[in-house]
Amino acid sequence: MEERLNKVLAASGIASRRGADSLIADGRVKVNGIVAPPTGGMIEPTDKIEVDGKPLPTPSRVTYILNKPRGVVSTRVAQSQDSVVTDLVPTSPPVYPVGRLDKESEGLILMSNDGALTDKLTHPRYKHRKEYTVYGHSANAFKPRKLEEVFLKGIPLEDGLAKADSITIREENHGILVLVITVHEGRSHLIRRMCAATGIHVQRLIRTRMSNLKLGALQPGEWRALTPAELALLA
Questions:
Q1: Is the pLDDT of residue 27 over 60?
Q2: Which of 26, 52, 102, 119 is catalytic?
Q3: Contact indicator for 48, 55 with CB cutoff of 8 Å
Q4: What is the dihedral of CA 8, 10, 14, 15, to 10 degrees?
Q5: What's the pTM?
Q6: Active-site residue flag, 119
Q7: What's the confidence (pLDDT) of residue 233?
Q8: Distance in angstroms (rounded) separating the CA atoms of residues 134 and 140
Q9: How far, in Å, are 92, 108, 132, 184, 214 from residue 209 at the CA level?
């Protein structure tokens, strides 16, 4: 069965799908001894693939759940002096973050070298739900019940209407609001933008669930490998 070259490269753990596209475009990938075209194209299971003159590795597939601390960047390669999520998990075999969690946010992020699983968890059509707990305070006069209505009805953003799949809000001492928000979209900074549009100043944002996986008792910076049963729930 034919598969796209970049998908095969990603599944091998050598790079993310985007990184695989860059390897192909740079002429670093050969298929059966011939440099792959910049667009990659389709390959057969029997094709011989080389990257930088070396056979494509076939490492075992691993997926970790990590409690990303605040201040750590969700990328494999550091762009500055920032710490990155791959500093916190084993380096062999190489793994990549599944989706993103912005630098100032914390909580559940998956790290994997399984390209097929990554694609399934990040593609919008699968509508995998993600749950976030937000601590903040409101700059407007909305009561929690009214805010819930606004989030469920939809909030106009610059890239379209954004709705929460579910939300609960409670008010704690000193006017602190605690929002538990579930969404299935993966738009950049979606929760922060929804909060900003409704006058909520976010003080802390934690992702506590992704699909059927919960953060559980993992402390910031801690990780563990997913069990076969957990992987089956994501399949």
A1: yes
A2: 102
A3: yes
A4: 140
A5: 0.76
A6: no
A7: 84
A8: 17
A9: 26, 7, 7, 11, 4
